[in-house]
Each structure stands twice: as C-alpha cells, then as structure tokens.
Specification:
alpha/beta; Metallo-beta-lactamase, Chain A; 2 domains; 8-stranded mixed beta sheet; 7-stranded mixed beta sheet; globular; binds zinc ion
C-alpha cells in the first residue's frame, strides 16, 4: 500500500514537471531568442575577417532541390569592398544568416542568365534597399540581356515597392534606392581575351568567356592585395578559364558527377519520366566533371580548388566526398567541397584560412 502511494506521488510529480516545462518552454525559448537576436542584428561578418580577399559561399546548390544549399551565390569581400556573384534562390537569406550586410553590396555580377543564377536577385535587391536605407539602386552587372531581366523584375516588384514606401516613409525606404539598375557588357569573343569591368581602390575584376552552349556565359577573376579568386560560373571544361585562372590563389569551380547524374537519369527512365531523364542526359555536356575541374586547376597551377554548384543534389553526407576524390585524382593541391556558410580567406599577408559562419 505504501509503495503504491509512493509511486502515485512520483507519477504526479512527473506530470506536474511535464506540465510546468510545457508552460515554461515558450518563455525559455523567448529568452534564448532575445539573446540570439541581439547578436544577430549587430553582426557584420566583415569585422571578424583580416584584410585580404575572401570567398563567402552564400549558395553552393544548383537548380535541383536541396534544403542545405541555396542557389548559386558567391560573395567576395576585397578589403572593405563587397561584391556578389550570382544570386540564386535563397542566396539573400543565406547572406543574412552569415552576417553579411546586403546594403553594403557595391555591385552584383551575373555569370549568365540561367534561372538558377538569377531567381534570388529580387530578395537581394530588397535587402540592399531595406537593410540600410540605400539611396542608390543595386548595380547588377552582366552580359547582354541583363537589362531585360532587371527591367522585368523591377516591374514585377513595383507594386510591392510602392506599398513599402507608403508604409515606412521615404527616410526608411528612400524611393531612389528601390530595385536594381543594369550595367551590361558584351562577352569577349575569343578564348584568352579578358574584359576589365572594375578597377577601383585596389580591386580589379575581369571577365572572360566560358563554354555553356547555347547559353552565353562568363567567369570572373577578382584581384586585391596581390591575391586572386577565379570563378568558373557554369561551364564545360574551358580553355579560356584555364588561361584566366593561371596562378590564381583560389579557383571556385562548378561540378557535375557523371556517375550520380547517370543514377538520376536511370531512376527517371525507370519511373517513366522520360522528360526528366532527357534533361539529366542533356546537362552533362555543358557542365564539368570534378576530374576535369581538377585538370583545369592543375594546368592553371592554382593554390586551391573549391567545388560548388553540385549536380545532381547531394542530400546524403559523404556524397560530396566522391567529388573531392575525383578532383584529387587530377589535381595535386587542396580540394574543398564548399558548403553554404563557408568562408575561404586569402589574407593580404599570405596563406589561406577556412571558417564557417551560418547561424540559425
Ligand atoms: Zn547553374
Ligand atoms: Zn547554367
């Protein structure tokens, strides 16, 4: 009888504790949120980085669904100057979660006008405007066609911009900063030809043609303090990229795994989804295998290779290891499978540092 009473008391205590925890859980979460919010709102990624050139991975995915990777996006911090290269879906959110202040973006460069590289532009433009009361539109620099994309997006968001200006007022949302302006360039015709797009405050950015037929596409090289980063954009194995990347400190290269792509192709065929199967077959000829990305890195004598724009998606831990191993079979230097939130730093004083900056 005594034991039963004791057990009953214990059960009542457990239930009471559970009910108490249930009621207090929201309060505890709110206190944690308050502390996290203070840190997050005051955060600026650049303040913790040394003077130099930094590759900030704000989107390492592709058009295929992967909740751990935003669409293609690389932010480059050169000294105090912030640039973005491509803005795929989710890129702006990833930049926020990394503590990158988007009102500080000086220019956003596009490698080409495929949907996966531009479908996050609208949100970057909104953050560029809203997060710091920018009085100038986001400068979007890209190949011919960029003005049409920008005009279309500006039109699509004109009603939203009107609402925000009316609600918050011109001091918070200056009318002159709404949306984007386009700066177009003609892609250099020949392999080996470069076009200088930026040369200010010690930062130089050049562009060159890559091979993404039938898409008109470019890569970029960014130079600052005798350090450099070369970006492949989307391309099959490219001679002009190999030339442009000669001696660069860091090559950021896209990658498609023919083996994993074949698995997706075969699964699509087996499910009777011939159209999807055909697309998996078609994409092989305008992307680069990790072995070939390694060849480019080796021939260009780069300091390190970071793989990005993973095709197909890599939802299982360990899948990107196959990309790294393949690239290492053809390139002697360090190879990284970039993740959203990664930063590869090239300090002015030399060397290379890696860090990760992605909060909830
Ligand atoms: Zn792409
Ligand atoms: Zn593409």
């Amino acid at each position: 009888m005594k034991a039963r009473a004791w057990l009953g008391g214990l059960a009542a205590l457990v239930i009471a504790a559970g009910v108490g925890a249930y009621f207090f859980r929201g309060e505890i979460a709110t206190r944690i949120f308050e502390r996290a919010a203070r840190q997050a709102v005051g955060e600026n990624l650049r303040t913790g980085l040394p003077d130099g050139l930094h590759a900030i991975f704000c989107g390492t995915g592709s058009p295929l669904p992967d909740r751990t990777r935003a669409g293609p996006c690389l932010a480059v911090l050169a000294g105090q100057h912030l640039f973005i290269f491509d803005a795929g879906d989710g890129a702006s959110e990833t930049l926020q979660l990394m503590g990158v202040q988007q009102n500080e973006i000086e220019a956003l460069f596009l490698t080409h006008l495929h949907s996966d590289h531009i479908d996050g532009l609208d949100t970057v433009a909104l953050q560029h405007w809203a997060s710091g009361a920018s009085r100038e539109q986001l400068n979007v620099i890209g190949p011919i066609g960029t003005a049409r994309v920008v005009a279309g997006l500006n039109e699509a968001y004109a009603i939203d911009q009107g609402y925000r200006m009316a609600h918050h007022g011109p001091e918070v949302m200056p009318p002159s900063g709404a949306g984007m302006r386009a700066t177009e360039f003609a892609i250099p015709l020949a392999d080996g030809e470069e076009l200088e797009l930026w040369n200010k405050d010690g930062v130089r950015i050049v562009t060159f043609r890559v091979t993404h037929t039938p898409t008109e596409a470019v890569g970029y090289r960014i130079e600052y303090a005798n350090r450099s980063i070369t970006i492949s954009g989307d391309t099959s194995r490219s001679q002009s990229l190999t030339q442009a990347a000669q001696g660069t400190d860091l090559l950021v290269h896209e990658a498609i795994s023919p083996r994993l792509d074949a698995i997706m192709h075969n699964a699509s065929q087996a499910a009777g989804r011939e159209n999807i199967g055909a697309i998996f077959n078609d994409i092989l000829d305008y992307h680069t295998s990790p072995e070939d990305a390694g060849h480019v890195a080796q021939e260009a004598g780069v300091g390190a290779l970071a793989l990005t724009h993973f095709l197909p998606q890599t939802p299982i831990p360990g899948l990107t290891d196959t990309f790294v191993q393949a690239a290492k079979s053809t390139y002697d230097g360090p190879v990284f499978a970039a993740r959203d939130g990664d930063v590869i730093s090239l300090p002015r004083t030399g060397g290379m540092l890696r860090s990760h900056h992605l909060r909830f």
